[in-house]
């Protein structure tokens, strides 16, 4: 429902949430006594609540705060400081901005009862906002730990200067809120299949619940919630018929095709994974909740997303802001579904032979690899004729917006949107939650509950088959521990660039092992990275500490 995003700026003015801090009394909002009269008033206010999803493409930066990517411009995001371990109270990773929306949700919920409107619609609107609030509180808790739990609107700034609630209490509140209202939400909007993706449906509520329960180790509950979503009609996006454009890139020099069936499976897998994110396939049945965008044909357009600018290299019109690092590239399976063993960084530098023609040994790194690698990463020597005839990705070192790592993301780059050179104006949706994540969540949670079984392999094989990859080897991955490693790596590569890796390495307690200094293809250090156990949680920003002295004890408890 794109209007949710389009007219949200009107609602911002109506709701008066333009202040930088939640602890100022809004002076620019209309009086509740004059505004909350009609259903139209409520619709405007609801749109303002949904604007919290408007810039979800910024989740891509979270991969740069983890071990999937590097973000070269510190003024764009906090990712480069977080990945470097330069973390203190001068940093705000989203505390203040999320409380702006908490205030907006509470103001909506406290006032919607005043309007004259259809009661069934009122009930549904309340449910949508309560889920949005629960989702925002979950994000605050898993970033900051104990936080103030504000459930009502306020008029006095002192009302927000309250003690923190334990993260467990906040998470339980979020879970209870979603369960309390999920039955009031429709399976779809506008009478379509359950893929009306711009606002909260019943399926989206259960998907959010699945994510929360998985992250906090509530594995039996996560299994049950995932099953709710899996029975709701969602399915992985598949392209069943190839066009001439789909096969413009000749992969015969990289992939060994044993027969034509294998070749068809590869190209269909490549197209299916890559094109699910393209504008032409918006609203497909894999999308559960997305941030919706339109193209406006103006620079820095407020209704487009920034992906083509942030991900693309300069010769495609981008800035190379978020680029894959070597450990992500190495994580992609071989084409037979087994683990890829990379060369040493020193040997790779010799093979790459910067500023000269890469050797055959370097090209061999990309032979017979996971189809999703070719769909997701531009590596030196990779062609992309779908974008432009004769295009080949090259890299001769950083500078001028070129990647610092030697790679750029191809995932989320839509050739149609790349035609325009305008910045921050990509029109395609950005996935907040898609069905592949639910299948992965089910597989992980079910494996933790009871170990390998047929339903887990079915979920994982569905994901692999869509990408043109072979099924999981059940004979080899026949224990909880072995299958756990497969699921974790499958999750890493399937969801690369979608912001999940940051939290995954924390909840799995592997951050100390993976947040290591990263180097480029030529074995030159890109970024020194350090890990401290306190980085499991982020500090409150100093502005919040200044306004609420109750936060100081919680800040100290976190080690900041």
TrEMBL record:
Residues 61-214 form the SusD-like N-terminal domain. Keywords: Cell outer membrane, Membrane, Signal. Pfam families: SusD-like_3, SusD_RagB. It is found in: Cell outer membrane. The keyword Signal applies. It comes from Sphingobacterium kitahiroshimense. The lineage of its organism: Bacteria, Pseudomonadati, Bacteroidota, Sphingobacteriia, Sphingobacteriales. Residues 286-552 form the RagB/SusD domain. This is RagB/SusD family nutrient uptake outer membrane protein. It comes from the Bacteria. Belongs to the SusD family.
């Amino acid at each position: 429902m794109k209007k949710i995003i389009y007219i949200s700026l009107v609602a911002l003015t109506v709701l008066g949430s333009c202040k930088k801090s939640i602890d100022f009394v809004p002076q620019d909002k209309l009086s509740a006594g004059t505004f909350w009269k009609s259903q139209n008033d409520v619709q405007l206010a609801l749109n303002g609540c949904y604007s919290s999803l408007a810039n979800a493409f910024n989740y891509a930066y979270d991969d740069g705060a983890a071990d999937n990517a590097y973000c070269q411009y510190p003024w764009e995001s906090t990712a480069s400081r977080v990945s470097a371990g330069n973390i203190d109270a001068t940093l705000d990773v989203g505390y203040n901005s999320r409380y702006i929306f908490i205030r907006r949700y509470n103001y909506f919920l406290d006032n919607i009862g005043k309007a004259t409107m259809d009661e069934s619609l009122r009930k549904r609107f309340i449910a949508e906002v309560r889920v949005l609030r629960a989702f925002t509180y979950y994000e605050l808790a898993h970033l900051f730990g104990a936080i103030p739990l504000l459930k009502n609107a306020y008029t006095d700034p002192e009302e927000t200067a309250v003690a923190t609630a334990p993260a467990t209490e906040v998470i339980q509140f979020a879970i209870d809120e979603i369960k309390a209202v999920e039955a009031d939400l429709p399976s779809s909007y506008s009478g379509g299949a359950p893929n009306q993706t711009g606002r909260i449906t019943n399926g989206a509520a259960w998907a959010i619940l699945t994510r929360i329960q998985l992250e906090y180790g509530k594995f039996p509950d996560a299994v049950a919630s995932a099953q709710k979503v899996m029975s709701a009609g969602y399915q992985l996006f598949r392209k069943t018929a190839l066009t001439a454009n789909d096969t413009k890139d000749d992969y015969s020099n990289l992939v060994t095709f044993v027969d034509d069936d294998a070749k068809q499976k590869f190209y269909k897998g490549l197209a299916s994974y890559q094109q699910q994110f393209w504008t032409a396939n918006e609203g497909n049945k894999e999308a559960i909740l997305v941030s919706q965008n339109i193209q406006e044909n103006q620079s820095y357009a407020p209704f487009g997303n920034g992906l083509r600018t942030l991900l693309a290299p300069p010769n495609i019109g981008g800035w190379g802001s978020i680029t894959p690092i070597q450990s992500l590239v190495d994580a992609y399976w071989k084409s037979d579904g087994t683990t890829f063993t990379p060369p040493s960084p020193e040997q790779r530098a010799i093979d790459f032979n910067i500023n000269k023609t890469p050797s055959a040994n370097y090209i061999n790194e990309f032979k017979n690899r996971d189809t999703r690698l070719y769909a997701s990463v531009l590596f030196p020597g990779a062609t992309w004729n779908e974008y432009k005839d004769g295009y080949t990705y090259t890299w001769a070192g950083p500078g001028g917006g070129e990647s610092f790592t030697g790679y750029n993301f191809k995932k989320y780059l839509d050739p149609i949107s790349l035609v325009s050179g305008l910045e921050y104006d990509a029109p395609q949706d950005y996935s907040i939650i898609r069905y592949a994540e639910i299948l992965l969540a089910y597989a992980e949670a079910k494996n933790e509950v009871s170990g390998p079984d047929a339903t887990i392999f079915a979920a994982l094989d569905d994901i692999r088959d869509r990408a043109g990859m072979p099924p999981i080897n059940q004979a080899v991955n026949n224990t909880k521990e072995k299958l756990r490693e497969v699921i974790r790596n499958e999750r890493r590569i399937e969801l690369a660039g979608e912001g999940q890796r940051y939290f995954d390495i924390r909840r799995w307690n592997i951050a100390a092992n993976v947040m290591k200094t990263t180097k480029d293809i030529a074995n030159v250090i890109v970024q020194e990275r350090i890990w401290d156990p306190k980085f499991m949680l982020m500090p409150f920003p100093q502005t919040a500490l200044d306004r609420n002295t109750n936060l100081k004890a919680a800040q100290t408890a976190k080690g900041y």
